[in-house]
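Onboarding guide, step 5: your first structure request.
Type a short instruction followed by the sequence, for example:

Predict the 3D structure of this protein.
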Amino acid sequence: MRHLGLTIAAAALAAGLAGCGKPSNTQAQNAQAPSSEQPAAGAPGEPTPEQKKALVATLPAPYNTGDVEDGEAKFAICKSCHTLTSGGPDMTGPNLYGIFGRKVASKAGYTYSDPMKAQDFTWDAQHLDQWLTDPKAMVPNTKMTFPGFKDQKDRIDVIAYLKAETSPNS
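The system replies with structure tokens like these:
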């Protein structure tokens, strides 16, 4: 029975990692050597729990009701391809720090697909919701292979988590 559990766990891990593809050598090197700009846990640049709640409260309804802790748990699948910290490396996907208010496909140093570069919008809660529902429906032929979160509550929570974790402190 234990062998079956390990087999299932290994299969789940492989499926999660396969969803984002394999990083290039440069991306793998970046993932192993994080930028010196990345703040340590508890660093002055990291928002407090109160600041995180205040950041989530700035989102429009229904995103302002998101559960940051649940969003963090749901975002775990995304961590194989994305980092969230200031100065964090790009991986298979771009670093998402500062995503809110960023023009699509504009993060310096990341190579976006042509279909993403052809888009013309700024990332906000509504665009993230659409993207997280089904990236390939929003941007056909995007290189992102993630199928999306079908449950609206999951998307709301992930968006709240992203707001809390990727917003620069003012």
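Each response can be followed by summary notes, for example: The chain has one domain: 46-166.
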